[in-house]
Amino acid sequence: MFEILPSLLAADFTRIGEQLEQVASAGARMLHFDVMDGHFVPNISFGLPVLESLRGRTRLQFDVHLMITDADSYAPRFVEAGADLVSVHVEACPHIDRTIRA
Fold first, then answer.
1. Residue 64: is its pLDDT beyond 90?
2. For a tag site, which of 43, 52, 59, 92 has the least CB within 10 Å?
3. From CA 44, how far away is CA 36, in angstroms rounded?
4. Euclidean distance between CA atoms 34 and 21, whole angstroms
5. Residue 82 pLDDT > 80, yes or no?
6. pLDDT grade, residue 1 (50/70/90)?
7. pTM of the predicted protein model
8. CB neighbours of residue 63 within 10 Å
9. Looking at residue 96, what is its pLDDT?
10. pLDDT tens, 16-56?
11. To 10 degrees, the CA torsion angle through 43, 93, 33, 47?
12. Which domains does the chain have, with CATH numbers?
């Protein structure tokens, strides 16, 4: 079995509430967040405030992909903000063992 996760990056941010309802109504269980900082990867997306504000608007689970420098220190903060699943790049985590335990 496989599952398709709609990505927040593809959303129209002027209609985000409506689009969250659409993906939930279509049967999605999770929403994917690509978090980019402009350092680890050249693009910049969004961070903790966006995740926190959307957490209260939907029951979708949040899958957060951290494409950021210093993912070690940010991963627990994204969990606290409402992430259900966090993916990191091992090369962005000098202490991957600590990140996994956090």
1. yes
2. 59
3. 5
4. 19
5. yes
6. confident
7. 0.91
8. 20
9. 85
10. 999 999 999 999 999 999 999 999 999 999 999 999 999 99
11. -70
12. 8-101 (3.20.20.70)
Q: Count Cβ atoms below 10 Å from residue 47 Cβ, excluding itself.
A: 18
Contact criterion met (CB below 8 Å) for 71 and 95: no
Coil, strand or helix at 21? helix
Residue 59: DSSP 8-state: -
Residue 40 structure tokens: 């680890």
Q: Quick one: how many helices (H) and strands (E) in the chain?
A: 4, 3
Name residue 45's amino acid.
S
Sign of CA dihedral 27, 76, 88, 15: positive
Residue tagged 């269980």 (tokens) = 29
| pLDDT score for 74 | 93
